[in-house]
Amino acid sequence: MSDESKVSKAQQKAVAKYMKNNYDEIKVRVEKGKREIIKAAATAAGESVNGYIKKAVDQRMERETADNDPVF
Question: What b/e string do you get for 33-43 counting C-beta neighbours within 10 Å, with b at 16 or more?
């Protein structure tokens, strides 16, 4: 690893603080083998697994909101 790509402890701490203050975390459990299927689908779509899942959730929420009265 080159010196340019090393991340200092201060940078790591700053990123952790930013993430804590700006994002919520949700743990998703899937059946054995499903993770690799999701990962392959995300890769095929040119997205990260996180981005792929977030987009899927957003799309479903949009569909359900359009079909019914807004819940959120």
Answer: eeeeeeeeebe
- What is d(CA 16, CA 22) in angstroms, rounded to the nearest whole number? 10
Q: Helices 49-67 and 34-44 meet at what angle, rounded to 10? A: 90
What pLDDT is stored for residue 72 in this prediction? 58
Side-chain-facing half-sphere of 7: CA atoms under 13 Å: 6
Q: Which two tokens stand for residue 44?
A: 């095929």
pLDDT band at 67 (very low <50, low <70, confident <90, very high): confident
Contacts of 30 (CB under 8 A, 6+ apart): 38
In the chain, the amino acid numbered 18 is Y
Q: Which two tokens stand for residue 72?
A: 């959120």
In the chain, beta strands by DSSP E: none
Q: What is the pTM of this model?
A: 0.73
